[in-house]
């Protein structure tokens, strides 16, 4: 697996690409999404990941797709886990395609 950079948490992306440029607080976004303020605060602090519910709401508000947000979450989780278990993964011998 080629590694180019550290994995980007979807909360970092939300914070840096949406909230900061818009001058919007996590609390303000939470109100617009009809969510508890703490949910968005914990996401942008990178303490928790996105749920499908949150992805659907972000997609609606920012005119994106829920897949856009969930793909960020999935990529972050896969890369983070791959780094954690890299030594174990190296021990696995791939199955021979001809077998």
UniProtKB/TrEMBL annotation:
Q: Do the record's keywords include Plastid?
A: no
Q: Which organism is it from?
A: Mesorhizobium captivum
The HTH cro/C1-type domain covers which part of the protein? 22-69
Family matches, as Pfam families: HTH_3
Q: Would you tell me the protein name for this molecule?
A: HigA family addiction module antitoxin
Q: Which UniProt keywords apply?
A: DNA-binding
| SUPFAM superfamilies in alphabetical order | lambda repressor-like DNA-binding domains (SSF47413)
């Amino acid at each position: 697996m080629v590694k180019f950079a550290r994995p980007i948490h979807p909360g970092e992306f939300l914070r840096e690409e949406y909230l900061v440029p818009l001058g919007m607080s996590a609390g303000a976004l939470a109100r617009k999404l009809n969510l508890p303020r703490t949910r968005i605060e914990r996401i942008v602090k990178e303490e928790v990941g996105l749920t499908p519910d949150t992805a659907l709401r972000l997609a609606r508000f920012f005119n994106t797709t829920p897949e856009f947000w969930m793909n960020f979450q999935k990529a972050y989780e896969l890369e983070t886990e791959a780094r954690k278990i890299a030594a174990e993964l190296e021990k696995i011998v791939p199955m021979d395609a001809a077998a």
